[in-house]
Amino acid sequence: MDKPLDFKLLTYIGYNLKHKHVFSYLEAQKVLDEVFGEKYELTTLRKEFSILKKKELITFATHYRKPYPILTSQGKMAIKTVLPFKKYGTWDKKWRVVIFDIPEKDRAMRVKLTEKLESLGFGQIKNSTYISPHLLLSPISRYATNLGIRKYLSLMTVDNLQDEEKIVKESWKLTNINRRYEHFLVSAMKKQVEEYWPLYAKKLEHQFADIYRIDPQLPEEFLPTEYLGTDAYKKFKEISNSY
């Protein structure tokens, strides 16, 4: 997933300018083109810098009376790569099932619930039925309670699913996720300009994070042959420790 200009500029400011203490819009234009493959107009960059300053994501310091941008604490947080917690331990061979029948008047709450289920890696087997092998019913119950729709949900734990392998294959697009992991690993192996490595590294970190967020972390017996999730995670850690 391509990142917006504000992310690219914050990354450039945070890592490429960290030790330089000098800045020019022409240099920023050149680096963004080199690293992200897109050349922005100088007027666009100037406008974006003004927006970042207004949002208090950057401020300006001076070096020999010449101003250069630096990240504020908010700016640093904006580009920090944060992975969701997905260490579920050994599977207990049980499935968690969420079934709901939410009235149309609460449609907005229904959308929020489905977004929450998907963010936690639940797979959809019917319009209003989601499953997960992980111990995630409690957070769903709390979330539904906060939304005021808990009474419309049925939460249960079952020992097995009929046509288990078929349901898993249809509920999660693991082949697509694995293809994205492969693309990430290929990108990570490409030789890059050493001077700009921290920017490439940050770009790769976020590329991995976008995939990891949608990976349901299913038990190994349900993963496709040669699933690359573990290899991709190791490469992510290697990249994160490289600058």
Automatic annotation (TrEMBL):
Residues 172-241 form the Transcriptional repressor PaaX-like C-terminal domain. It comes from Berkelbacteria bacterium GW2011_GWE1_39_12. Residues 90-163 form the Transcriptional repressor PaaX-like central Cas2-like domain. GO terms for biological process: DNA-templated transcription. Pfam families: PaaX_C, PaaX_M. InterPro entries: PaaX-like_central (IPR048846), PaaX_C (IPR013225). It comes from the Bacteria. This is PaaX family transcriptional regulator, phenylacetic acid degradation operon negative regulatory protein. The lineage of its organism: Bacteria, Candidatus Berkelbacteria. Gene3D superfamilies: 3.30.70.2650.
